[in-house]
Design a protein that fits this description.
The protein is α/β, with parallel strands linked by helices. The chain contains 6 helices and 9 strands. The protein is globular. The N and C termini lie far apart (50 Å).
Length: 218
């Protein structure tokens, strides 16, 4: 398989038509090799417009490329910023964040996935990302506050404890709700509290141990 041609096709046929237009985001998607973060047996799916199973104890999955790219674009990282990611998975999003930021802490609840992500990041030469095993829904108070937080899995509602670990002006990106009506949202901490903006609609796998959204009752 010609990975470079597949990467080009992904960017030109999926991401640009999907309104991923930030030059910095598109550049890092060229540089960080997505296929190196996909299980070897599934590398033919690395650039497909679909989620990719990662294995682990709870059947974790990588988001589709367009979802990852739109999330990264919405968070609008800057090189001096410190970032927290909740849900490391394969380490791919952590690598993308690391390419835009000064330092990234990433929390993964599945120890098997955490170790695999560390290996992927080492192989890719990423040196400014630290992967820790643990439930990220409580954040990482020891290194707070953060300029940005990426919640790489869906939750019924973003826990307040995560929002409280943002710096003034800091942003948090997450997927809120339950299938089939999830929203990708961007929170921002300001002088009056927190603002919330819906960025796009999608469906992604829930974070392990995330509280399920309440069912609608007729």
């Amino acid at each position: 398989m010609n990975f470079e041609q597949a990467r080009f096709n992904m960017i030109e046929q999926q991401l640009r038509p999907g309104k991923v237009l930030n030059p910095g985001v598109l550049e890092v998607l060229h540089v960080v090799k997505r296929e190196e973060f996909v299980p070897p047996a599934l590398r033919r799916l690395a650039f497909a417009d679909t989620e990719v199973p990662l294995g682990g104890t709870q059947g974790a999955r990588m988001c589709a490329p367009i979802v990852e790219a739109l999330a990264l674009q919405a968070l609008a990282m800057e090189k001096h910023e410190n970032v927290l990611e909740i849900g490391t998975g394969s380490g791919y999003m952590a690598a993308l964040l690391g390419a835009h930021a000064d330092h990234v802490w990433s929390l993964e609840i599945d120890p098997e996935l955490a170790e695999a992500a560390r290996a992927n990041l080492r192989r890719a030469g990423v040196t400014n990302v630290v992967v820790e095993a643990g439930n990220g829904l409580s954040g990482l108070a020891a290194h707070a506050p953060f300029d940005a937080i990426m919640v790489s899995g869906s939750v019924a509602k973003v826990p307040r404890v995560l929002l409280d670990q943002l710096k003034p002006g800091g942003r948090l990106f997450a997927f809120e709700g339950a299938a089939p009506a999830m929203e990708a949202v961007l929170y921002r901490r300001n002088a009056d509290g927190f603002s919330r903006v819906a960025v796009f609609e999608t469906v992604v796998a829930p974070l392990r141990d995330a509280e399920p959204a309440p069912a609608f009752v007729f």
